[in-house]
Amino acid sequence: MGRLWRNIRDFDRRRASFPGEHLIVGAVGASLLRSARGRSGIARALATLAGSALLARAASGRDGLARLARRR
Question: What's the predicted TM-score (pTM) here?
């Protein structure tokens, strides 16, 4: 499992990104968090987990907000 995860991360680092990628990922994450309110039980937990992970990716990913902040 660790090898698969490493391969996925390496692929993500090598691939070309597209403009606005972090904005799209952040919007999808926020949408999942918002939709979690109307769910119950395991569905709420999964939507919250996925939404939080996507927001974290948008904020700290390769082309995310953290990179934009370092430029300033």
Answer: 0.69
What token pair was written down for 34? 């918002």
DSSP state of 42: H
Contact (Cβ atoms closer than 8 angstroms) between residue 54 and residue 32: yes
Question: Based on the number of CB atoms within 10 Å of its own CB, is 58 exposed (0-12), middle (13-18) or buried (19 or more)?
Answer: buried
DSSP 3-state of 19: coil
Residue 23 · residue 45 · CB < 8 Å? no
- How many domains are contained in the chain? 1
Is 3 part of a structural domain of the chain?
Answer: no
pLDDT in tens, 12-56: 778 877 778 888 889 999 999 999 887 888 999 999 999 999 998
